[in-house]
Design goal:
Layout: E1 7-12, H1 18-23, E2 27-34, H2 37-47, E3 52-54, E4 71-74, H3 97-110, E5 117-123, H4 133-144, E6 148-155, E7 165-172, E8 174-175, H5 188-196, H6 199-202, H7 233-241, H8 245-249, E9 255-264, E10 267-273, E11 292-297, E12 300-305, H9 308-314, H10 327-335, H11 340-355, E13 362-363
Parallel strand pairs: 1-2, 1-4, 2-3, 4-5
Antiparallel strand pairs: 5-7, 6-7, 8-13, 9-10, 9-11, 11-12
Length: about 375
């Protein structure tokens, strides 16, 4: 491949194509996969469907994947790793889809077509699931196929006004000393996960050097749509009645905030943050999963639900990104995605230098 040709990638559990959007024009998609009809339709609406295969990852074969990609990106289902879920780990019914992806990587390896680099994105619970046993199993799978690997914990709040910490496990068949070193994304959680690994897997670890981004210059208020339907004063007062005195105090002065309803020992509570960030977007499967926007001005408080477009903006998606018409469907797509600016930062500072054909490489042992 010449320097002028784009780098290539496979995108597994592609969702609405947010990893593809983040990678940008320097990359060319060879193959994408997802089984969710709404996400598949959204992907096609934004990127076309010529390289998208709709269906269960377990039904794919190596022959379905063209060529040899520089990168395989996998944002595998996170529910079984989520701190809010049952934490079934890699044995869970959803996260076990990872092994459907991994069997393809193994088959490509047999054919000499394994991707040079792999990124596995998931919730922070991946680091501690089953006392670290799941992270160790992931590392053993990567090392067993000749990859060196390391993890970065990156919060989308560095780039967009949404608190969304995620783990990015980056694995490469090449070691580039210039890309290793200190990083603000080597969090205490990442360091603890490394310390729990047995010595043989620690020997396959890379401390990827990814710099801190510039300070974020937008807050939650900047992504809100101006013309939206507000709830009635009665509904807003009911929402305020679910807040503890500490949370109500946050709305005693002018503020813009995001509210989650949560179940606490004392009953249902509404909790608001007014630090310029929304809480982590979720898929709207339950009544408490969709965030409420509150605006306090001149002693009055108004409230309404977050819109689909606002959710997309919190994921760093441009307004040209085509969303499903239904708000719930739009939030389903974006709430299950990866923040595009995080992918772009990771691509610019690690993935592109790592996959660049002209860079000197040292084969991993």
């Amino acid at each position: 491949m010449s320097r002028n040709e784009p780098l290539t990638f496979y995108e597994f559990f592609a969702g609405g194509g947010m990893a593809r959007l983040g990678l940008g024009e320097a990359w060319r998609c060879l193959f994408a996969n997802d089984f969710d009809p709404v996400k598949v339709a959204t992907y096609r609406a934004n990127f076309g469907g010529e390289d998208l295969h709709a269906g269960d990852v377990w039904r794919l074969k190596a022959a379905d994947l063209p060529g040899r990609a520089d990168l395989a990106w996998a944002s595998s289902p996170c529910q079984d790793f989520s701190l809010a879920g049952a934490r079934a780990g890699l044995a869970g019914s959803r996260s076990s889809a990872f092994f459907g992806f991994w069997k393809l990587i193994e088959a490509l390896g047999i054919e000499g077509r394994a991707p040079r680099t792999i990124v596995i994105e998931n919730v922070v619970g991946l680091l501690t699931s089953h006392g670290g046993a799941d992270f160790e199993a992931l590392g053993r799978a990567l090392a067993g196929q000749g990859y060196r690997f390391g993890a970065l914990e990156i919060d989308a709040a560095n780039f967009t006004p949404q608190s969304r910490p995620r783990v990015f496990v980056v694995a490469s068949r090449e070691a580039r000393p210039s890309l290793t070193g200190d990083s603000p994304f080597h969090t205490p959680g990442v360091r603890a996960a490394f310390e729990r690994l047995p010595p043989d897997l620690q020997a396959s670890w890379n401390w990827w050097r990814v710099p801190e981004p510039p300070r974020r210059n937008i807050d939650l208020a900047a992504v809100l749509e101006p013309d939206t339907a507000w709830r009635s004063p009665k509904d807003t007062e009911h929402l305020l009645s679910l807040m503890s005195p500490i949370h109500r105090e946050r709305l005693s002065q002018d503020a813009v905030g995001a509210v989650f309803r949560r179940t606490r020992p004392e009953g249902q509570r509404a909790e608001v943050r007014t630090d310029g960030l929304a809480g982590c977007l979720r898929t709207p499967r339950g009544g408490s999963s969709r965030q409420t926007i509150v605006v306090a001005r001149d002693g009055q408080v108004r409230s309404r639900l977050l819109t689909g477009r606002e959710g997309a903006r919190l994921m760093g998606l441009p307004d040209s990104y085509v969303l499903p018409k239904s708000t719930n469907a739009a939030l389903h797509v974006v709430g299950d995605g990866v923040a595009a600016p995080v992918v772009r930062w990771l691509a610019e500072h690690l993935l592109e230098p790592l996959c660049a054909p002209s860079a000197p490489a040292i084969a991993a042992e």
